[in-house]
Amino acid sequence: MREITLSKAVNEALAEEMRRDPTVLILGEDVAEAGTPFKVMSGLVEEFGTERVIDTPISEPGFVGMAVGAAMTGARPVVDLMFGDFLFLIMDQLCNQAAKTHYMSGGKLNVPMVLRTNLGATRRSAAQHSQSLQALVAHIPGLKVAMPSSAYEAKGLMKTAIRDNNPVVIFEDKLMYQDKAPVPEEEFLIPFGEAHVKREGSDITLIATSSMVQVAEGVADLLETEGVSVEVIDPRTIVPLDEDTLLKSVRKTSLAIVIDEGHQSYGVTAEIASRLNEKSFYHLDAPVQRMGAMDVPVPFSPALEDVTVPTVETVAQTARKLIAREMFDAA
Amino acid sequence: MPAKSKTPSNTESYLQMYRQMVRIRAFEDQANKLYLSAKMPGLTHMYSGEEAVAVGICEALTNEDRITSTHRGHGHCVAKGADFKAMFCELLGKEEGYCRGKGGSMHIADQSHGNLGANAIVGGSMGIATGSALRAKLQGSDDVTVCFFGDGATAQGLMYEVMNMAALWKLPVIYACENNGYSEYTKTEEIAAGSITARAEAFGIEAFKVDGQDVLAVNDLSQSLVARCRKGEGPFFIELETYRYHGHHVGDINREYYRSKEEETDWKTNRDPITRFRATLLEQGIVTEEQVEAINAEIAQDAADAVAYALEAPYPDVSEVDMHVYAA
Ligand SMILES: Cc1ncc(C[n+]2csc(CCOP(=O)(O)OP(=O)(O)O)c2C)c(N)n1
Ligand SMILES: [Mg+2]
Prior knowledge:
The complex is a heterodimer. Chain A is an alpha/beta fold. In chain A, 35% of the residues lie in helices and 19% in strands. Chain A has 12 helices and 14 strands. By secondary structure, chain B is an alpha/beta fold. In chain B, strands 1-2-3-7-6 form a 5-stranded parallel sheet, with helices on both faces. Chain B is globular and about 50 Å long.
């Protein structure tokens, strides 16, 4: 199968959906001629014109609010939020307006919009350009949240998101834009709420999102050399969450670590771990462990930044302890 | 050029302004080199070309006056009195940096000189600057706060919320809009409707437009507005017409698709703030060629020494990672 970059995969998904549905349009800063700072949208304005690929001023609450209004009245906007950190600027439009409109209107109004943004540290971009804020939006009922872990997921999830009748937030890992993965030429969609078992194993389950899937796979490779069989699962969407696949795996292996790049406290890892603890307590040999980013603003200095996120080494260490039953008494 | 007689105090302040502009340029040249030689983590936004804005304004301020800065903040930081070594250490994430390496280029704050910090959120410091002015007024202090921001930041709603309050409450704040013609890869006329100064005027704020490449014009206006702010006549708004010589950030090298080489050359050769001011200094007999060259050489050496120092300086100990999340 051909391999393409994550950036190209997103570009293809947008182009295909824009060709299929004339109501799909793109709004954001430097999306047209510049094709976004990450060059994800290169070529789209040339094909679809400035009426459908619209450069906005630096007015995030303004254009997100406009996307909500356009979505309520018959368009399917894909909003480009240049950095996930800018979610804090648009929380009212996204969480009070977009998320609640369908419910508050008794099901009469829909907000079929996509907010594509990114996550991820270790790019030396400091505290306001490095956050992974998926927990923030996953907390709000009415929003769906997708977290692609490679070019393949990025394309399939984006196409599904555009066709979904709800507001969907997609977090891409900004360190992954140039990473290549096999992506079929023919059209495909990835349904929401279907986790992907990336690797089967029997001793321990690693549940990892987005940037952390690569880490989990690195751990699986490493531990395999130590005779440990690791199962790696990528939930792909955290809202909706495919609990069944996760529970099935954990009941098989009896040990699990959940890994996500958001801050560990009150985070995605906490939610998934507690669901597993609640629903598979008697199958577990130890409490499900959480591994997220440290509870600190992301520091600039490389000497500090690198220790704030889970790595193959730190996750492998936790896994070894679980397997050795050193964490058996932790509860 | 305003006709000023060559008094001793003029000589001193003119030389200081010249020096500060050259210091900013020298700092940026070194920072760009650090990036190009892959010695600097991450990206940075160059202030080269805009020196007269930061220097003209900051030379009208005292150490007690405050500023808030932007992602393109090295110029403001130097102009407000910062030291090269601590700045380069910060750019390289070293322990001796202004923020112990935690902030980096986009977050340098220099408490000792009243720099409340650069900001990586466009328009993100407008509330902070206005709040600092509110504190000055409430506490009966006569310090003034200058809020630096770009033309692109005028699209942020926050600006209109705080200008309204600043005008209602007559706060000692000066909004300094550095209009360099672009926000990222987009021309200002494509993102700003109507007139920028008229927006401030709509709140009853006196607004001025000034040539941001003319350090004396900027400084004269700033001196008078700062003095009026101290008397309770603020807030004010200044739009400074200027130009950034580099790309949006150091990595923005192939930029002809949004900005022509001819345009860049025109600004650099015909409107450079340092070249222009140097000519004035020579014309007025304030310095000789040799003296200017000596100043330039001394500053270039300072910058090179500071870089060499910062490259050798240690990183913070890893135990610092969770220090400073909460104040004691
Ligand atoms: C709220 C927010 N939106 C978008 C960005 C990305 N961004 C960084 S600088 C910039 C352009 C700013 O233009 P301007 O205010 O004119 O300042 P200049 O870079 O020209 O000095 C943009 C869009 C950001 N940092 N913050
Ligand atoms: Mg600008």
